[in-house]
Amino acid sequence: MKFIFVTGNPESGKDEILDMVLRGYKKMLPRFRYIKFDELMPKLPKMERDIDKIKKFCKNFYSKLERKLVQELKKDGNLIVNGYFTIKTEHGYIPILPNAFFETFKPDVIILVEVLPSRPETYMMETEHMDWLRQEINRDYASLYSAKSGAMVKVVKVKLGSIGGALRETSDVIRFALK
Questions:
Q1: Which CATH number applies to 3-177?
Q2: Which helix (H) or strand (E) segment is 38 a member of?
């Protein structure tokens, strides 16, 4: 059984890229199950200001995720999880997964989807709309979690307005990992 963890900022296009790759290559990929955090996670109230409540929210979500993963790992086949390392709050970023997740479940590959500006001259305009800090934080978490689990990290860079390269890279690494 192989386990692939895919992550990236919501605006990176990771959901769309992953959905397109999995639909397009489903017949060519070994059997896999797909878990999407967004289907398991209730919405954090936007104006939540109590850090203890946010941490409790993360802990409750992780307990639910852990039960789901244990259930899925008992079945045959491979597992692809589409999730996040952090959640954004009004005051900063909070990790949604504890170190124990990566030490326990040990993904084989972590795919980190990042956004690049479409043209260098538009960099400043596009960065105003992107959460570049969260992208950098995700990169740091990918390194940390890779060290904890032994997972290979693949960074897939998405150019705004052109996802063809990201589709190829993502499908290549998923096919490689599931062999």
A1: 3.40.50.300
A2: helix 37-40
